[in-house]
Backbone:
């Protein structure tokens, strides 16, 4: 069964197209990633799928419910962790969860049980009665994830769940997300961190300017771009290349020489290193250093959009976001 | 959750209660804010009451001003409470409420009840401190009716605040509401001056201000010194409450994140 189906989902803000004809299918139990730079339309997509924004055109079904005509059913069946913090920091963790549970119509006894369970899931039970304003960024995130799970949703939306967190805390959040996946919760995760999408997601849609430019498993996406390569800094790169050609023990493609550095593509760079060393030693070529490069989602992103995901940062994009959310 | 109509009504009421609970907990969790918001009314009541009182022979201004300052406390706190939806939008909590399977109407009702509860509590504190100005508290029926009047004033202005917050998007605009709505409502009313001593132009404006009727009702009940019949005061208050609640529900229903 498909947990999300969209058809030509589009959102325009004052003539600016934030999401442009999105066609997307997510299967039940999947951890599905939306990867793209800031301003690519990830959050706008999330807002439409969670019924907070009405699409300009197109349609979508979430858990089999239409986001336009069955908004109430959609809301009952999902959990959402927004990009920006949405806790009331003047209330305790328990009160945040308790009020959330009431808003979702969870009856008293069950609510208490669920609050206890989700607090344990994110390792915060001893913080239940503390006001949220004393929490660290990572703890707030964990509490928000706990809150999103309180109503036992079939589908959890995580919009940039590790934005602004330090690497160690990010790892922790990833562990919780993996735990959820093992419990069978379907998850839609948006991120502009490539390694996050790569590490967590079953399938990834790369979004740029409101459109999906590529969609597949992280491994398949990486296979599309040129494979692994190896860089050797040595005393005589021409001679080394000639030796490689003679020996045939190391597969190599697209060999290039720039100064003292020989670069070529090879499927398993790790295995190539000792073979290259042996050849170099025999031919009396001094090797200064060897570097290997495996393709990342960054390469995939560059392949499809012609630029790095990290380039689109800063005030220009922020300004656009502001325009999007203030101007309607 | 397999249960019938009674049960689903209980769940809906629980959702209103959740919004009320949040307002109330925020209030009890920040006692500093509560004490702070009592400062100005107390200053008005004691300093202005004693100062201007000495200039007004023939009128017991010390007593006259108490219901006016109670009205002021209700007006300010209720408007702040309603308008605080702007902050919820800015700091994210609005999304948490809007994405929940809870009708917008229930959110509005919960906020009106929550804001009214905390405002009335502060109004009661001012009223009790007013006894230091020499005011004596009325018998139970009048007192309960006074609390009802206070609740109507408070609930109405929370709704007015919600209506403004639903159409205002920037926190900065709040200052505008403060200067062009709250302050005029206060000064262009009978809170500080008796209606019959006002110049005509001011009396006309004050008589169009719903706050005047709330304060007049309290003067009637507490001091037996109302300018209008009590029934007129109560009718105006109920009508105002109904109209602004409908407007607030409508505008909040259309608001987005």
Residues:
């Amino acid at each position: 069964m498909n947990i999300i189906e969209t058809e030509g989902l589009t959102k325009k803000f004052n003539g600016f197209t934030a999401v442009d004809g999105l066609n997307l299918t997510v299967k039940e139990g999947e951890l599905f990633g939306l990867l793209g730079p800031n301003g690519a339309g990830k959050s706008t997509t999330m807002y439409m799928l969670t019924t907070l924004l009405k699409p300009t055109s197109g349609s979508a079904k979430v858990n089999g419910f239409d986001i336009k005509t069955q908004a109430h059913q959609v809301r009952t069946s999902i959990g959402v962790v927004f990009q920006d913090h949405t806790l009331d920091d003047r209330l305790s963790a328990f009160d945040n969860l308790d009020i959330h549970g009431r808003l979702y119509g969870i009856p008293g006894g069950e609510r208490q049980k669920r609050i206890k369970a989700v607090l344990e899931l994110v390792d915060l039970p001893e913080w239940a009665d503390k006001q949220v304003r004393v929490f660290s960024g990572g703890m707030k995130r964990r509490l928000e994830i706990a809150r999103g799970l309180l109503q036992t949703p079939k589908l959890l939306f995580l919009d940039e769940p590790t934005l602004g967190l330090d690497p160690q805390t990010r790892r922790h959040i990833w562990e919780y997300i993996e735990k959820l996946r093992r419990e069978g919760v379907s998850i839609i995760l948006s991120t502009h961190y490539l390694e996050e999408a790569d590490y967590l997601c079953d399938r990834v849609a790369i979004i740029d300017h409101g459109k999906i430019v590529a969609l597949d498993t992280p491994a398949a996406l990486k296979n599309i771009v040129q494979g692994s390569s190896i860089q050797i800094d040595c005393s005589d790169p021409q001679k080394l290349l000639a030796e490689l050609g003679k020996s045939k023990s190391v597969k190599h493609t697209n060999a290039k020489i720039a100064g003292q550095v020989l670069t070529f593509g090879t499927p398993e760079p790790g295995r190539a290193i000792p073979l290259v060393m042996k050849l170099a030693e025999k031919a009396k070529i001094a090797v200064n250093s060897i570097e290997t490069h495996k393709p990342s989602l960054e390469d995939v992103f560059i392949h499809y959009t012609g630029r790095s995901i990290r380039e689109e940062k800063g005030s220009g994009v922020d300004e656009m976001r502001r325009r999007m959310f203030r101007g309607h | 959750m397999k249960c019938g109509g009674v049960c689903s009504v209980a769940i809906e009421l629980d959702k209103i209660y959740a919004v009320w609970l949040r307002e109330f907990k925020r209030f009890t969790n920040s006692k500093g804010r509560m004490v702070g918001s009592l400062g100005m009314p107390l200053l008005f009541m004691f300093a202005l009451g004693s100062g201007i009182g000495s200039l007004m022979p023939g009128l017991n201004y010390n007593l006259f001003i108490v219901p006016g300052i109670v009205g002021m406390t209700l007006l300010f706190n209720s408007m702040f409470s309603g308008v605080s939806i702007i902050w919820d939008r800015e700091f994210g909590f609005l999304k948490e409420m809007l994405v929940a399977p809870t009708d917008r109407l229930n959110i509005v009702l919960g906020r009106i009840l929550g804001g009214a509860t905390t405002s009335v509590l502060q109004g009661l504190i001012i009223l009790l401190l007013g006894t230091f100005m020499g005011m004596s508290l009325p018998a139970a029926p009048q007192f309960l009716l006074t609390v009802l009047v206070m609740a109507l004033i408070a609930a109405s202005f929370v709704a007015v605040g919600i209506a403004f917050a639903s159409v205002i998007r920037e926190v900065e605009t709040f200052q505008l509401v403060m200067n062009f709505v709250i302050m005029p409502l206060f000064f262009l009313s009978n809170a500080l001056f008796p209606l019959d001593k006002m110049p005509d132009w001011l009396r006309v404006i004050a008589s169009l201000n719903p706050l005047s009727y709330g304060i007049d009702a309290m003067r009637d009940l507490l001091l037996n010194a109302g300018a209008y019949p009590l029934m007129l005061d109560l009718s105006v208050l109920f009508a105002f409450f109904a109209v602004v609640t409908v407007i607030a529900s409508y505008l909040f229903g259309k608001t987005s994140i």
